[in-house]
Amino acid sequence: MNVTGHISFPHVFQPTTVRGIYGKLILALLPVAAFGVHRGGITALMVVIVAVGTGVVSEFILDMILNSGDRQPVSRNGRILYLTVFLSLMLPFDTPPVVVALAAAVTVVVGVHLMGGTGVYYINPVFLGLLVAGVAGMSTAPVHWGDLAVPSTALVADSRFYQFMMDYVFIPLGMRVPPEAISLIVNLGETGAVSIGASLVVPLLLGAVLVLGEDLIPAGPVAAYAAGAVAVLYVADADIVDLMVRSNMMLVFFFGMVEPSTRPVRWKGMVLYGLLAGGLSALFLVVPGPSMPVAAAMVIVSVFLPLIDQLLDQLVVRR
Amino acid sequence: MSIVSKKSVGILLPSEYSPLERGYWNAAVPSLCVVPLQQHTGSRIEPLVVKGDLVREGMVIAESSRRLAIPLHAPIPGRVVDIGRVKLFDGTFSPALAIELDGEFDRLGKRADPIPWEDDDRADLIERIRAAGVICSPRSSVPAHRYLGARRALTEPIVVLDLSDIEPYMTAGLEVTVTSPVEVLTGLRIAARTAGTENMHVVIGSRARRRLRAFRKYADEVGVRVHYVADRYPGLTEQSVRSLVSRRVARRDVDPDIFIISPATAFSVHDAVVYGKPQIDQVIAVGGSAVRRPAHVRVRIGTSIADVLAECGGLTAEPARIIVGGPLTGQVVTNINAPVTKAVVAVIAMKGDEIRDERQEPCIGCGACVRACPVDLDPRLLHRYIQAGRRDRAVTAGLLTCIECGLCSHVCPSRIPLVREFRMEKLTRENTA
After folding, report:
1. pTM
2. Contact A13 B419 (CB under 8 A)
3. Cβ-based contacts under 8 A for chains A and B
4. Inter-residue contact B165 to B235 (CB < 8 Å)
5. Domains defined for chain B, CATH in brackets
6. Deepest in the core among A18, A105, B196, B429, taking most CB within 10 A?
C-alpha cells in the first residue's frame, strides 16, 4: 500500500495514454499502408521503410544530442512511428529515396523539435515534411506531383487479387462485384505521381473505424471537413464523389486534421478548422496550381490554428 | 412542482466502477473509539472529561465557549482510557479521546419520541443544530448552524439539497435518501427554516431518478422544487446551481444567498432537531476493486478505517491505494488505523489496474483537459505559464477560478498532475500574499 501521503488527487485516470493514442492511430493507418504497398509494390515499400527509418534515426540522434536527462524521447510513445508512416502514405510512389529521407528528417527535426517541441507546435510536422518533399521532388522528378489517383478498372479486372476474390469468394456467394468497387480497395491505377494512400477508400474506412467517434477523432470536425469540401466542389460544379474518392482527402480527413497536437482544442474550434481545411483542400483540387493540393491546404489552414483557439477562448470568457 | 433541467457541467464518467450493495446496515460497534477533537472548521474545543471517566452514548465530551466551536459527543458508552493525540488518515495529528466500550447503550435500537419543531424560531433551531455538533459533510467541515445561520443578502435565501453527486462511490447520500426520504426531506425543511426561507430546491442526477420516486412524491407534497440534471462530473458548480435555482431572481439583478446541503447533512439536521440526537454516526460508502463486499455501512464516529473495511468482508488483495472520499477528489489514507470523522462519507480501496497510473510524459497539447474543464479554463495554458514561472499570466488566465475538481488530471493522457500544480500555485500565492 502506498503510504507516502503526498499523492494528490485524482486517484483514477481515464484509460487513454499518449502511447495508446499513437498506437491506435498507427493501427488505423496499417490497412492503408498495407494496400498502398500492395498497389505500389517494392517502390511503395521502400518509401515507407525509408520514411520510418529516417524518422526513427533522426529522433535517436536528436535524443543523443539534446538529451537533458529528464526529457522523454518522443519515439518511445509511438509518435514518430505514426508521423513517418503517415508521411510516407502522403508521398507519391515515385518519390526518390533521398527526398523521402529529407522529408522524414524535416518532419522530425524541424516539425517536431525546432518548432517548439512536443505539443507546442501548430503545423502538423508531416505537412512541413511534405512541403520540403514537394519543393525537392519538383526539382528532381520530371513529373508534376499531385494527390489524384486515376483508377484503372481494366487493371483491376486483370489482377490476381480480383480473380482470386471472384473465384473463391464472390461467385460462390452469388455476388456480382464490378472491378470499379474493387478499385476502391486495391486501386491499381496510376502509381507514379500520386500519393501512396490516395483513393484507398475502403482500407481507410476500415482503419478509421478503430478511432472514429472517440475524443481522438470526433465525428463533428470530420463531418465539417466533408461539408466544407462538398460545398466548394458543388459551387465549382466539380464531380464531388469522383474527386473525393480519387484524392487523398479522405486520408487527411482522419489522420491529418485529427492529430491531437495540431488541431484546435475546443469542439467549436475543431468544427471551424474542419470547414476551412475541407473547403481549401477542395479549392486547391479544382483550381490547378499547387502540387500536393490537400497538403498545401492543410499547411495554410494550420497557420490559423492559434487564431481559432484564441477566438474561441475569448468567446468562452465573454460568455 | 418539478422543473426538468439539463444544466450540468463536466464529463460523463465511464460506469465501470464496481457497484455497491444498495441500502446500508449498522456496523458492529467497535470496542475502542478514538474521537478526534478537531473534526470541524472553527474554534478549538477542550475535553470535558478526564482519563478514567465513564461516559454515556451521546454525552458531550468536549466543548468550548468560543463562537465558532461545536460540542463533541461520545459515540459509544464506555470509559475514557486515554487523552492525547491521534494520527489522522491524511497524516496530520489531532488531539483526541479514546473511549473503551463499557456500560449500556441509550440509543441503540431505540427511537425517541419526536420533538415538535414547526413552531420553533430560527434561533432555537440554530441552537439545537449546534448542540448536536452537525457539520456540513461532505462538502466541507463547517458547522451546519454557522453555515445556515450566515445570511448576507437582504433577499430571501434559497436552500438546495444536492443529490446530483456523480463521483464514483460517493453514493452514501443517495442511499440515505432512498432509505429515509421523509427524514431527509424534513431535514431540508428544517435547514430552510434555519436559513429563514421557504424556498427549497432539490437537484437530482438523472441516474438516481428512478430510485428517488418516493422522495419526489414527498417533495411535491411539501412544495419543494425538483430539478433533474445530466449525470456529469463534477455536475453542479456553485455557479451552475445559482443559475439553475435562481433564474427569476437573477433576472432582477438580485443575488440571493444559496445554501447547498448534502443528504447526509439534512439527515443529521433532522435527527438533531426532531430526536435531539447528536452526530455520532455516519453512513459511509465502502467500495473499490480491492473490497470483498462493496456496500454502505453506518459506523460510529471514531471507528478505525481498518474496522470499516473489515465490516465489509476485508480486502481481496493488497490495495494500491486506500482513499477517503471520492476517487477524483479524495485523500490518500496514510494510516489505516486512523478514526473515521464526521466528514468521511466514503472509504475506497483500489487495486492498481483501477487507478491506471502511468509515468508522466510531456504535454502533447491534445486539449482533453480544456474540453473537460467545467469552468471553461485552459489548463494546458495554465500549466505552461506555471512551468515558465509566469504566475501573473496564470492568474490572468483564470487560475484562481479553478474549482479543483480534478478532471483535467483525470483525462490527461500524459498523466500531468495539473490539479496538484494549480493547487500548489494557489497555496503559494496565499502564503506570499
Report:
1. 0.80
2. no
3. 131
4. yes
5. 11-20+113-274 (3.40.50), 368-432 (no CATH)
6. A18
